[in-house]
Amino acid sequence: ASVSEPAQKCCTENIQPFLTSILEELMGPVSSGFTEVRLLFDKEVNEIIQDFQKTNDMTRLKENVDQLMTLPFNSVKMEPCYLKVNLLQELLQDLKSRFKVYHIDFVIQRTQNYMQELMENAVYTFEQLFSPSHQADSAKVATTIEKVKLRVLK
Fold it and tell me: Which domain holds residue 43?
């Protein structure tokens, strides 16, 4: 009881007024990273569509979809997404000194883990909604892939 009132006063005066601006500042790199994940997924699926339109090869399409499933674990392709979040390092350094925020690397790592998880969910959902083996009419495959992609991105 003797600590509650001073702690409440300290939070109300020294932390709460800054929370909105802190969250806005932190959300910039986080949103940018997640946008990059979305763009990467979109780009990879568009490449599958273009390749299929050129080759009309169902076997190759299946291989490309299988390769898409490995995208969340492809550190080279995911790196641009992760780099967007590294900007948090600088932002959190300022917060560390002002508000005693520790474990900056943990915050960045967790954010990157969520990005990878989002990509895993996207490619899994794509695979579940689109199965090349169930596509009888190869003329409609590219359209179907596009529809599935848009559904996943939604």
Answer: 3-153
